[in-house]
Amino acid sequence: MSGDALLSLSDVSKHYRVRLPGARRASGELRAVDGVSLEIQPSETFALVGESGSGKSTLGRVALRLTDPTAGTVRFEGRDMTSLHGAALRAVRPRMQAVFQDPLGSLNPRMTAGAIVAEPLSAIRGLRGSELDDRVDELFRAVGLDPSRRAARPRALSGGQRQRVSIARAIALEPRLVLADEAVSALDVSVQAQIANLFAELRERMGLAYLFIAHGLPIVRHVSQRVGVMYLGRIVETGDVDEVFEDPRHPYTRALIAASPVPDPRVARERVVLGGEPPSPLAPPSGCRFRTRCPIATDVCAHEAPPVVRLSPTRSVECHHAA
Ligand code: ADP
Ligand code: MG
């Protein structure tokens, strides 16, 4: 399977040296991502879910080599990304693109929407004149924007339209992988569904794969095939999205599902209360890092790191009590 994977992370960590409160020098090690392996196949959407601070964005940035991992390897299209530099890295970059939460923050406010989408095409592909114009129109239509909106500046567009411009720019160079980091989270619920549908449509049309980071579980279930549940820098449960959401095995996954708003509030549901805040990634608990909030923790959880229990070739869970 790994031979064909588009993206393959193996035992990836990203630790930051940080200043502890009151300390004069950088003296703590913050384990933002701590030993994560995952694979994304071509045309597949892999979602990352988990509370804020669990390491999802850091993992996304490492996956696209926007930052270097502290340890582990990142392979994209079979090549070790961490060994690529200069021209070789620039040649790969167009094939991995990102869309972030706040398009106002990432779109140049002085440029028109058309110029924003045209920029990578002229800078990297060298397109000019009518060839460039036609391609920009085509991209606007591909993301559901009328080409007459080309003259608008980001501020004159709605949130959903701005996100469509970001997506048009991201797909301009025909990437194979798109990181969507909370790309729908700031939008109204109805617009979230439209943008999620656009992602799904582009996946089918262009064979795109996504690393899709979101905190709304219904949207994750709607757009992705597989999911990884992150807690304090680790993926504690992973599998096909329907399996994980219908039969969650990790107590943290159960708590996340229980805490997620249901479309129909009359539907009764088992409440699993996730108390308090996650511990600091500067000092994760010994043994299992979820044990301090876990309703089924026992002695062993404090003393031994949980095993990775493989429930099927695509399904695993990191818990002493999963079997
Ligand atoms: P998420 O996207 O799941 O909310 P992040 O990946 O943004 O989580 O952050 C994971 C942890 O890493 C957090 O504790 C965060 O404060 C820390 N972190 C992220 N980026 C940095 C950085 N550049 N320097 C130090 N700590 C960081
Ligand atoms: Mg984040």
TrEMBL record:
Keywords: ATP-binding, Nucleotide-binding, Transport. Residues 18-257 form the ABC transporter domain. GO terms for molecular function: ATP binding. The keyword Nucleotide-binding applies. The keyword Oxidoreductase does not apply. It comes from the Bacteria. Pfam families: ABC_tran, oligo_HPY. InterPro entries: AAA+_ATPase, ABC_transp_ATP-bind, ABC_transporter-like_ATP-bd, ABC_transporter-like_CS, Oligopep_ABC_C, P-loop_NTPase. NCBIfam families: oligo_HPY. Belongs to the ABC transporter superfamily. This is Dipeptide ABC transporter ATP-binding protein. It comes from Microbacterium marinilacus.
